[in-house]
Write a structure and sequence with these properties.
- The complex is a heterodimer.
- Helices cover 37% and strands 9% of the residues of chain A.
- In chain A, the strands form two sheets. Chain A has a six-stranded parallel beta sheet, sandwiched between helices. A two-stranded antiparallel sheet of chain A has the order 5-6.
- Chain A is globular.
- Chain B is an alpha/beta fold.
- Classes of the chains: A alpha/beta, B alpha/beta.
- The interface between A and B is large, with 51 and 57 residues.
C-alpha cells in the first residue's frame, strides 16, 4: 500500500485569495515575521548586486523567494539552539543575530570574518550563536546536527537543533542515516526540507519518485508535515509545534516546506532549464506581498512602514559593507593557522637540514 | 604494576577516562551489550549506563557525524569503527567535516574526538577485514593519526588522544590485541601525542616502522646482530600525522642508512613520505639508497594463506632489505 501524502498546511495564492489561518498570532510576532522576510530579501539582493559588481570573489547561493521558509523556520530560536545550515542558508545568520558587518566581512574574505577568510562566501557560520560553519558536501550538516542534538539530550539541555537542507539532499545516504539516527535516539532536532523545486538544475520530480517529501518521515518513525513554504504563518506555526515537541523530549520532526528558488543555483547559473511560466507563476506567489495582504486589514502594515524598514535595512547594509571594505585581508601565511590546536608554522616554515655525522677531511 | 595485553590496556584506558571525565562517552556498533567485536569496550555499559555507552544503528556515517556534533557541543566522544575496512561510509564525516571544522571556523568550532579503529592483516581476514588504509587519513591535514605498537603506548596514547582537542584517528592492530603483554603502571599516565620513540638503540642502520610491523622489525634487528654483528636502530613512528621528523632524521644522521617498514600498500604509503623527508633534509648523511618493505600495490589482503603470506611483511623480508642496504 502506498503511504498517504500529508495535507498541505497553509496556502498562498497568486490572486491573493489566500487561505485564512484559524490561529490568531500576536501582532508583534506577525510584524516581526514580515520585517525579517523583508530584511533577508534586501540583504540577499544587495549581495547579488555586489557579486555582479565584482566586489567579492567566489560565488553566492541566494534563497530569494524562499524567505517565508528562511524566516518561519528560525525565528525566535534561542542563542543556545543550533542551526545546521546548507550553502543556501546565509540568511540564517540574520535570523540568529550574527552582526551584519561580520557577515559582509565574510563575503569579502576579510580577517574580521568569523572564519578569518577561510570558507567560501556563502559558507558563513558563527560559533557564539551556534551556527555550524557549512561545508559543500550536501547533507553533512544534518548528521553533525544530530550529534549536537545528542549532546543536548545527554546533558539534559532543552535546546534544539534546526537542520536545514534542500530537497536534493534527500537523495544522499547521509540524509537517511541522520534522520534514522535521530528517530532511534529520539533526538531534539527538526529536519527542514526546503523544497525549492530544483537541486542545481534537476527538478524535484527527478530527485525522488514520491511527490510529497514529508512522507519519508514515516520510514523513520517520526512525524512529518508538509507546509506551503511561501506562507510564513504556516511555516512558523508548524515549526513552533515541532520545536515544542523537540524541547519537551518527544523527539525529531521532519518538515517539508514547498517553495521556489527565484534565481539560478548560484550567481553563475542563468537557470535556463526552467519554464519561464513556471518562474512567473511562483513569483506571483511572492511570500512578502502575501504577508502584506494578511497584515493590512488589521492595520499592521502600511507602505510607509515598509519604506521605513527598507531605509533602515539599507543603512545597516551600507555600514556593514563599509566595515568589510575597510577591513584588512588576512596575511598569506595565516593559511598555516588553525589546522590543529597546536601550531604547524615551525614545521612548515623552518625545515632544517641534517649534516653528515662527520666531515670528510682531505 | 599489572601485566596487560594490548586490548586490556585499551579497555583500561576507556574505563579510566570515562571515570575521570563525565564528558567522555563511547558510541559504535555492538560496543555496549556485546562489549565490542574485540571486547575493547567490555564492562563499560554496566559501569556507565546506556547514556554514555551507545549501541548505535549500523551506520558508520552517523556514528562519526554525530560524534562530531557532540564534540562541537563540548563532549568528548570516542566512537569505534569495528574494522577500518568499513570506514568508507564515514569518509565525508572524517575528512571533510572533522578534519576541517577547526580550520573552516578559524578555531571557534572544534572537534575533540577520538576515533578508535581496528586495522591490519595477517589473520586470514580476507579483503574486508585486513586493510590498513592509514595513509588515507595521513593525507588529510587536521587529523592526528596515531598507531600504537605496545600495550603501554596503547593505554597512554589513547588517554592522551581523548584529552587532546583535535580529532584523532586511533589505529589498533587486531593482531596485537592479544599477542603481546607488558607491565603497565597502576598510576594514571599519558604518552605525548606528537613524539616518535626509539625502540632499539643502534649505530649502523635505521629501521623505521609503527604498529604491528614493529614486532618483525625488532626480530629482524636481533637477527642482524647475531648474523652480521650489525646494530640496527629501530624507530617507532607512533604518530603518523603530524610526523615527528626529528626522531628519525637524527637517527639517520647517525647511521647513514634507512629502511622503512609498513604493512600498508607501497605507493604513497607513509614510507614514501618518510623517504622523501630523509632525501630532502638528510641527503648528505646517506651512504645508501633508502629501501621500503611494504605490501605490494594490490587490494589487501587476499584470503588464501599463500597469497596473504606473499603480501605481508615478514622478518625475512626485513632482514633482506637491511642486508641489501648495508651491502651498498
Amino acid at each position: 500500500m502506498m503511504a498517504t501524502a500529508n495535507d498541505l498546511i497553509g496556502n498562498v495564492q497568486p490572486n491573493g485569495s489566500d487561505e485564512q489561518h484559524s490561529e490568531r498570532l500576536d501582532a508583534t510576532l506577525l510584524r516581526r515575521l514580515y520585517a525579517y522576510m523583508l530584511k533577508c530579501r534586501i540583504v540577499e539582493e544587495r549581495i547579488r548586486t555586489l557579486y555582479r559588481q565584482g566586489k567579492f570573489a567566489g560565488n553566492y547561493f541566494a534563497a530569494v523567494g524562499q524567505e517565508a521558509t528562511s524566516v518561519g523556520t528560525t525565528l525566535d530560536l534561542l542563542p543556545e539552539d543550533t542551526v545546521a545550515p546548507s550553502h543556501r542558508n546565509f540568511v540564517a545568520n540574520i535570523m540568529k543575530g550574527t552582526p551584519l558587518p561580520l557577515m559582509f566581512a565574510h563575503l569579502y574574505g576579510r580577517k574580521a570574518s568569523p572564519d578569518q577568510g577561510r570558507s567560501a562566501p556563502a559558507h558563513c557560520g558563527y560559533a557564539p550563536l551556534n551556527i555550524i560553519t557549512p561545508s559543500s558536501t550536501i547533507a553533512a550538516q544534518l548528521s553533525i546536527g544530530t550529534g549536537i542534538a545528542l549532546s543536548n539530550k545527554m546533558q539534559h539541555k532543552q535546546n534544539v537543533v534546526v537542520a536545514l537542507s534542500g530537497e536534493g539532499s534527500t537523495s544522499l545516504g547521509s540524509w537517511h542515516e541522520a534522520v534514522n539516527f535521530a528517530g532511534v535516539l529520539k533526538l531534539p532536532i527538526i529536519f527542514v526540507i526546503e523544497n525549492n523545486g530544483y537541486a542545481e538544475s534537476l527538478p524535484a520530480s527527478m530527485q525522488t519518485a514520491v511527490e510529497d517529501f514529508s512522507i519519508k518521515a514515516q520510514g523513520y518513525g517520526i512525524p512529518g508535515a508538509r507546509v506551503d513554504g511561501n506562507d510564513v504563518i504556516a511555516v512558523y506555526t508548524s515549526m513552533r509545534d515541532a520545536i515544542d515537541r523537540a524541547r519537551s523530549g518527544a523527539g525529531a520532526t521532519l518538515l517539508e516546506c514547498k517553495t521556489y528558488r527565484w534565481y539560478g543555483h548560484s550567481e553563475i547559473d542563468g537557470a535556463k532549464y526552467r519554464d519561464p511560466t513556471e518562474v512567473e507563476n511562483w513569483m506571483s506567489r511572492d511570500p512578502i506581498p502575501a504577508m502584506e495582504r494578511r497584515l493590512k486589514p488589521d492595520n499592521l502594515w502600511s507602505e510607509q512602514w515598509k519604506e521605513e524598514l527598507t531605509a533602515g535595512f539599507n543603512r545597516e547594509i551600507d555600514e556593514a559593507i563599509a566595515f568589510a571594505e575597510r577591513s584588512p585581508s588576512p596575511q598569506g601565511d595565516e593559511a598555516l593557522d588553525h589546522v590543529y590546536s597546536f601550531s604547524i608554522r615551525e614545521r612548515e616554515l623552518d625545515r632544517k637540514t641534517w649534516a653528515p655525522k662527520y666531515e670528510l677531511s682531505i | 604494576m599489572a601485566v596487560m595485553t594490548y586490548i586490556d590496556a585499551i579497555n583500561a584506558a576507556l574505563h579510566e577516562e570515562m571515570e575521570r571525565d563525565p564528558q567522555v562517552f563511547v558510541i559504535g556498533e555492538d560496543i555496549g551489550r556485546m562489549g565490542g567485536a574485540f571486547r575493547a569496550t567490555k564492562g563499560l555499559l554496566d559501569k556507565f549506563g546506556s547514556e554514555r555507552v551507545i549501541d548505535s544503528p549500523l551506520s558508520e556515517s552517523a556514528i562519526i557525524s554525530s560524534s562530531i556534533g557532540a564534540a562541537m557541543a563540548g563532549l568528548r566522544p570516542v566512537p569505534e569503527i569495528q574494522f577500518v575496512d568499513f570506514i568508507t561510509p564515514a569518509m565525508d564525516a572524517i575528512t571533510q567535516q572533522a578534519a576541517k571544522l577547526r580550520y573552516r571556523s578559524a578555531g571557534t568550532q572544534t572537534c575533540p574526538m577520538t576515533i578508535r579503529v581496528c586495522y591490519g592483516g595477517g589473520v586470514g581476514g580476507g579483503l574486508y577485514h585486513s586493510q590498513s588504509n592509514t595513509s588515507w587519513f595521513v593525507h588529510c591535514p587536521g587529523l592526528v593519526v596515531v598507531a600504537p605498537s605496545t600495550p603501554y603506548d596503547a593505554k597512554g596514547l589513547l588517554k592522551a588522544a581523548i584529552r587532546d582537542d583535535n580529532p584523532v584517528m586511533f589505529f589498533e592492530h587486531k593482531k596485537l590485541y592479544r599477542s603481546i603483554k607488558e607491565e603497565i603502571p597502576d598510576a594514571d599516565y599519558t604518552v605525548p601525542l606528537l613524539k616518535a620513540a626509539i625502540r632499539r638503540q643502534g649505530t649502523d642502520i635505521t629501521a623505521i616502522s609503527y604498529g604491528y610491523t614493529l614486532q618483525p622489525t625488532l626480530q629482524a634487528a636481533e637477527q642482524m646482530k647475531k648474523k652480521h654483528g650489525i646494530d640496527v636502530e629501530v624507530v617507532d613512528l607512533r604518530i603518523l600525522a603530524p610526523l615527528d621528523t626529528d626522531t628519525f632524521l637524527e637517527s639517520v644522521a647517525k647511521t647513514s642508512r634507512a629502511v622503512i617498514i609498513h604493512e600498508d600498500n607501497r605507493t604513497l604509503g607513509i614510507g614514501a613520505e618518510v623517504s622523501a623527508i630523509i632525501a630532502e633534509q638528510a641527503f648528505d648523511c646517506l651512504d645508501a639508497p633508502i629501501l621500503r618493505v611494504t605490501a605490494p600495490d594490490v587490494p589487501l589482503l587476499p584470503a588464501a594463506a599463500e597469497m596473504e603470506k606473499f603480501c605481508v611483511v615478514s622478518v625475512e623480508k626485513i632482514v633482506t632489505a637491511l642486508e641489501r642496504t648495508m651491502a651498498h
